[in-house]
Each structure stands twice: as C-alpha cells, then as structure tokens.
Amino acid sequence: MLKFMMSHATGILYRSVYADIAGDPIGGLMLSALIHWAGHKDECARVAHNDIEWLVIPRQKWSDMLGVTGRQVDARLPLLEAKDLIYKAVYKYEGVPTIHIYFDIERLAELAESR
C-alpha cells in the first residue's frame, strides 16, 4: 500500500479511504496532498529540526494546490494530528513563522490497510 501511495507521479491522487480516515473529504484531500509532497521533494521545502525532516507548508500552499481556505486547513490539521497522522510545529522559515509538518505516512498506510 505504501509503495502505491508514493508512486503517483503527477498531481495528487485522491482516494475515498483518505476521507474516511481523516473524517471528511477536505481532510482526505489534505492527506492526498501530503502524500504527494512527501514523494516529490522538489515541490515542498523540507527542513531538519531535532533530527526530524519537516515539510514546510504555509497556509497559502494548501490554498494554491487544493483550493481550500485557511480556516479549512486550520480546522483539519488538529484532527489529523489527533489521529497521529501528522505532528505540527511552527518554526521560522526564511524569517517568517511557518507551519512545519511531520507526516507519518506509515501510520496512514496502517489505517488504510485496516479498512
């Protein structure tokens, strides 16, 4: 399952199981975007903090890619975090406090396989 999720070459791949896991279609769309960014290093900045590689994802990046609002992002991130799919922190990136996300894709694969 993990190999399949990482193999989608262009754009994002939305699967209804992601919405089931996240709790709604927008959360599922956000999981799809995280899978895409995790597999395409040139499309999302990464930084290391405390020996963890974080994805740097400003609110505007979600809007640009998915067409969701900042409020929708702010509402879903805590839900994904509560399911241990992501860990969120705010660090400065290029001098600006920015949301950084550690995405646990193995946890997503585990939840997807159990459905």
Fold and architecture overview:
- The chain has helices spanning 2-6, 16-22, 25-39, 59-66, 70-82, 105-113, and strands spanning 46-49, 52-56, 86-93, 96-103.
- A hairpin with a 2-residue loop joins strand 3 (86-93) and strand 4.
- It is built from six helices and four strands, in the order αααββααββα.
- It has a single domain, classed as Arc Repressor Mutant, subunit A, CATH 1.10.10.10.
- It is an alpha+beta fold.
- The protein has a four-stranded antiparallel beta sheet with strand order 1-2-4-3, covered by helices on one side.
Topology readout:
Layout: H1 2-6, H2 16-22, H3 25-39, E1 46-49, E2 52-56, H4 59-66, H5 70-82, E3 86-93, E4 96-103, H6 105-113
Antiparallel strand pairs: 1-2, 2-4, 3-4
Can you describe this structure in just a few lines?
The protein is an alpha+beta fold. The chain contains 6 helices and 4 strands. It has one domain: Winged helix-like DNA-binding domain superfamily/Winged helix DNA-binding domain (Arc Repressor Mutant, subunit A, Orthogonal Bundle), CATH 1.10.10.10.
CATH topology grouping: Arc Repressor Mutant, subunit A
* Separation of the first and last Cα atoms: 12 Å
Shape: globular
**Strand ordering within the main sheet:** 1-2-4-3
Beta-strand content = 15-25%
Look at the helices and sheets and give the structural class.
alpha+beta
**How many strands, which pairing sense, and closed or not: the largest β-sheet?**
4 strands, antiparallel
Helicity, as a percent range: 40-55%
Mean pLDDT level = 90
Outline the low-pLDDT stretches: none
Q: Which value, in Å, is the CA radius of gyration?
A: 13 Å
Order of helices and strands: HHHEEHHEEH
